[in-house]
Amino acid sequence: MDIEQLKYPIGKFQFQDSYTPAEVKSNIQIISALPSKFINLLGGWDDDKYNTPYRPDGWTIRQLIHHVADSHMNAYVRCRLAMTEDNPVIKPYEEQLWAELPDAKMAQVELSIQLLRYIHLRWVLLLNSMDEKDLARTYTHPATGRVFRLDEVIANYAWHSEHHYQHAFQLAARNNW
């Protein structure tokens, strides 16, 4: 399998100019389902499996799960900021450096799975409460200066959810786990 397929098992994210209500609803459902999908996939895994990189020179599954929790926690906060402020400038973080911190390399995967479960419960409640006007609210990412609409954020994190789930799923399939 080529390295690009291992890096991007579902392809790279593509922003759209707009999202229909049905697309937004589908994207929220994808976000909502992620914790359960990880629980079902990783339920019987041991430390050897969690410490396996999903690709050469990639994160271990342990780091990947902690990354998803970190990323989605930040996304939840960013959505709340966009809902309560006019186009706030969000705080970026160095995800690669976060993945190298001791807790991302040593903590039990279950801690981040549970964090994902509860963050997603709150986040999905917020996302499902949004109307068309809310979905058009924005925040600015200071690293790029790009303004993100919340409907774009939802689509991006639906992709992010499936992107990282497929890293773990395809590793399991390749290794017959």
From TrEMBL:
InterPro entries xref list: DinB-like (IPR024775), DinB/YfiT-like (IPR034660)
The organism's place on the tree of life at top rank: Bacteria
Entries under Pfam families matching the protein: DinB_2
Ranges of residues in domain DinB-like: 35-167
Protein name as annotated: DinB superfamily protein
